[in-house]
Amino acid sequence: MDFQIKEDFLIDGQPVKLISGAVHYFRSLPEKWEHILYNLKAMGCNTVETYVPWNLHEPKRGEFNFTGHADIEAFLSLAQEMGLYIILRPSPYICAEWDFGGLPAWLLKDKNMRIRSRQPEFLTAVASYYAELLPRVTKFQYTQGGKLLMVQVENEYGSYSEDTNYLRALAKMIQENGIDVPLFTSDGGWKQVLDAGTLSEDGILATANFGSDADTNFTALKKHNEKFGLKHPYMCMEFWDGWFNNWEEPIIKRDPEETANEVRQVLKWGSINFYMFHGGTNFGFYNGCSDMGQRDVPQITSYDYDAPLNEYGAPTEKFFAIQRAIKESCPEVEIFEPKYPTLTNLGEHSVTEKVSLFATLDKLAQKKVNDYPLNMEALDQSFGYTLYRSTLKEARTIDNLRVIDASDRVQMFINEQLVATQQYETIGQPVAVTLDKTENQLDILVENTARNNYGPKLVAHTQFKGIRRGVMEDIHYISNWEHYCLELESIESVDFSKEWVANTPAFYKFEAVIEQAADTFIDCSGWGKGVVFVNGFNIGRFWENGPAVSLYVPSPLLKAGVNEIVVFETEGRDLQTLSFVDHPVFKQVASHE
Predict the structure, then answer these.
(1) What pLDDT was estimated at residue 292?
(2) Residue 593 has what pLDDT?
(3) Residue 120, helix vs strand vs coil
(4) If one looks up domain 372-479 in CATH, what number appears?
(5) Which pLDDT does position 425 carry in this prediction?
(6) What CATH class does 16-329 carry?
(7) 472 within 8 A of 402, measured Cβ to Cβ
(8) Would you call the peptide bond into 519 cis, given omega within 30 degrees of 0 as the criterion?
(9) What is the 8-class DSSP label of residue 302?
(10) Torsion of CA 96, 100, 102, 106, to 10 degrees
(11) Domain locations in the chain as residue ranges
């Protein structure tokens, strides 16, 4: 069993064109993988590619998760059984519109941490992770009788830095953990990033990422290879057949036929990996955030990506346009009819119980006390919300109450009544409040909407969440703070026997009795902002500001009989009903551009 990279990709001595599609096992559920991979083959692909998100697999330092939709071994085993070659991208950083580009937030506990560098503290953390991850995947290598052909060293490193010794340290670490198939790097298709982010001088394959103009990008890659005397095959490791979507921005679409024409040009040069073939869903709090200069914009829960296979697994017009392009360019490729999922309207259900966050707070989080407010990472918290509480003395008026340097969305309450909501660039603006008691409770609920996954802000000191400096009255900082970490890993401790108060953040419970589990969507129209749990599983965030105002519910999360759906809503809406619908729901929004 032999896979080599020479002038062509050679499998057991025979040249092969890799026609691959990106499928992120962590953005769907294990019960859906077979359907997705079947359709990948149906479109004409012989390979599946996937990233590996470090923060999903090591959510707390030294605590590893390889179960459920994090079961990478089960995914690779299924792909192998279905006859697909595999490309694995387990680099510490993955971008992927995933929180912090896949880097775990606990790295930030070390305030001197320099991510993606040779700093010993960073490499030590990577080494510990790789020692747990890589032995799980070595058995899938082509050299071991499996289907794994090659492994990525780092991801678009030339768009971040230029330390090739760091790249060599990673490559060595990968190989020391039993990886003996060829390694590769992937970067944009232009000179500056190829020079900065590759290990071509060591003979390691360089690939290019782009969504159009194959001639220009591959010509740059050709010149880059020639500089090192390499005659490697050409591969677009990320052919961007669609794009991701941000909150408060219109849904982005790409014309199917235009996309297919670009695919034809790529295949004239060499191999391709469709990014994405199936995008899936940013379950929980794992969505990433775009660096838009002064304004950071988080991505929506749906990672549909306008991909050939949509979020819920249905082939699109783009699927068939690309399928035709593949068959025309590579007549020997086998294509066939795809499978279709069924979406079901599971009806409308009334709320059964509800409770205000403030009433059940002590059941959800253990109080932590400090003289000044601590950021999330200092509290050993990675995701979700942090509630900060202090006391303001005397009945009086405060003209200038300010939260100094917080991220990302702040709601201020006086005696459990909302007085201000600020986010992004408006955080820090003065708020005038009236106190009517001798002791007044100040609560500040801070939502971590996502860490940056790409760009100049992808450095540790910019990624702290919660309140980073403090809260000021007039010109002095307020002291004596209680902290409540609401990571919401479980909602079992929510006490619905406590009080519900209008116009406050609250939990709402619905019990949906259904005859048979089915794929569906929850229509969040009319709700404000928050997250939804289906039988305890966090299916992601909703927000009335759009563009998506529904959440996909894969059938494996439901069951015949009683299903418990809990909504955490932060804007004080009184949720009376929950509706399952058989289609995604969108809202027209204007672009900020």
Answers:
(1) 79
(2) 58
(3) helix
(4) 2.60.120.260
(5) 86
(6) alpha beta
(7) yes
(8) no
(9) B
(10) -170
(11) 16-329, 347-355+493-581, 372-479
